[in-house]
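Team,

Forwarding the record for the chain on the shared tracking sheet. I've put the sequence and predicted structure together so nobody has to dig through attachments.
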Amino acid sequence: MSKRVFLIVLDSFGIGAMPDADKFGDAGANTLLSISNSDKFNIKKLKELGLFNIDGVDYLEGDRDPKGAFCRLSELSNGKDTTIGHWEISGVVSQKPLPTYKNGFPKEVIDEFSKRTGRKVLCNKPFSGTEVIKEYGEEHIKTGDLIVYTSADSVFQIAAHEDIVDVETLYEYCKIAREILVGEHSVGRVIARPFIGDVGNFKRTSNRHDFSLKPPKDTMLDEIKRCKMDTIAVGKIYDIFAGKGITEFVYTKNNQDGMDKAKEYLKKDFNGLCFINLVDFDMVFGHRNNIDGYANALTEFDFWLNEAINLLKDDDVLFITADHGCDPGYTVSTDHTREYVPLIIYGKNIKPVNLGTRNGFCDISKTICDYLEVSNHLDGKSFLEEIYEKQ
């Protein structure tokens, strides 16, 4: 008998500041609270599954008879970024934060990058992705110099106009950067940020590509794959794990494309895990302080979820969670926010129970491996016995 697990990460969907949020500059952040005040916010299915019954969500009326198991998860890792969040979801807690560069990358890194690419560098400091091409795009077109920038996350980003540097060449430059950024400079991701358009009207394209650091040890993907089961990655999951432990993958252009691809897998037979990331919450709305856009995107997901649940088979289990916060109403910055994340579990054999507040995103991976009967040495603690009703 085959078992299918669907794990959906709503990228950046935090539900309230963690106790140590002030250390990250995020005291008071609450992504869910911010978007719940929008008139675009309408998530009946997530409410029905127990989202508003989770610890700390006392500003929204919970469901009287929630249909899913649910809880709030705190992050054990020392960070608030995509890479570390997904690693922890997959059973690897990172005590040491990945390096960040408030003042830009050191001279030796930039010099080596310029030497190996044959191109000079513009910017080299933290910057908004849309603003950096407004500021440096014209000079880039005139000189051919690469726009290199970072953020509060552990990222080395390279922006280039597709008419000046073709996409494949930009990817090669990213691979060079990835080779350079090791040891003390092992950033989580090197990101290609191609754009098009004329001066004053630049626009980033969907040809973004992430070149990630490999996880420091095996994740649940490796453990499941080792048992000859499927590990299917939808969206940027393949890039986040640098392909490690993945048997099949498909990229997506946006949330809608991600949901369409996920629906295709709901209709297919496989045995194992389908791991899905929906990136627009973070990239398009959270970082742009777009409260209405974020709320509308969650409403669209809720509508899709209502249909998706009808495609679940008797032994399927659905997990819905997040990797960090990115509160669009938090005007202190446009960066990720250190927040608790929700976890909702649904399936025909899943008991609707409140699991309270759990310590570590990694409990997800332990529970999934437990359900798939995969022995492992991952971080975390399984809660399968609390939610699973064997038939």
